[in-house]
Amino acid sequence: GRPHTRDYDDMTQEFVTTAIGDYCVRLCAEGPMPDHAMETSLLDASWARACKVTGVNLWRTLQLAKLVTSRGSQVRSQLKTKLRPLIEAVFGFHSSQSKNAIKKNRVLAEGLKEGTNFAFKEDGRRGFLKAPLIQKIVNTMWFTNKHDDGVVYHEYFRPFPYPALALVLTAIECCVDEWVTGTRTDIPFTIQEY
């Protein structure tokens, strides 16, 4: 089957775990939806950091590289999973089969998407990027406790990186898109779609 970190010896597991942690943070901070060249560049930097941190100079095989880079889609999925209930609560979407609720959800989603209104603090397009939801998801994703990436890898998050902000806004858009029909429909948060 598919390779897993646990399939390797302890030294390799420690190395790969270190590379994965660094790769996921670099991905968010530098290029959350990378093309192949960017993915390779991020992997090169994370591999070098893992060599330095662990003191192990591990040969990079295709399988080990895939173990690291496959985490990119998991990071995006994790963000969307954490964001989805916040979107429902903050914006007031309702899971219901009533025609009235479906219509309200559709109108709400269309209004939020128009001109990226979801990114504003107030109606009337005031307070761009000051919507409390943005800070809430940033905190939930990267700063909930001392073991979260934003704390452990704080050097990547001071100041907060624009690519990570773009990732958050794109994830919000994806979650709002799920309500465009009036009932929540899962939409993959993929590079191809967004």
Molecular structure report:
With 194 residues, this protein is mainly α. Helices cover 59% and strands 3% of the residues. It is built from eight helices and two strands. It has helices at 10-30, 36-54, 62-69, 71-91, 99-113, 132-142, 149-152, 162-177, and strands spanning 120-122, 126-128. A two-stranded antiparallel ribbon has the order 1-2. Strand 1 and strand 2 (126-128) form a beta hairpin. Helix 1 (10-30) packs across helix 3 (62-69), helix 1 (10-30) packs across helix 8 and helix 4 (71-91) crosses helix 8 (162-177). The radius of gyration is 19 Å and the shape is elongated. The mean pLDDT is 93.
Structural class: mainly alpha
Spatial strand sequence of the major β-sheet: 1-2
Order of helices and strands: HHHHHEEHHH
The pLDDT mean sits at 93
Distance between the amino and carboxyl termini = 30 Å
Number of strands: 2
Largest sheet: 2 strands, antiparallel
Overall body shape: elongated
State the low-pLDDT regions, or none: none
SS element count, helices: 8
Q: Per DSSP, what share of the residues sits in E-state strands of 2 or more residues?
A: under 5%
Radius of gyration: 19 Å
Helix content: 55-70%
Record keyword descriptors for this entry:
two-stranded antiparallel ribbon; single chain; 194 residues; elongated
Reconstruct the topology from this structure.
Layout: H1 10-30, H2 36-54, H3 62-69, H4 71-91, H5 99-113, E1 120-122, E2 126-128, H6 132-142, H7 149-152, H8 162-177
Antiparallel strand pairs: 1-2
Concise account of the structure shown:
With 194 residues, the chain is mainly α.
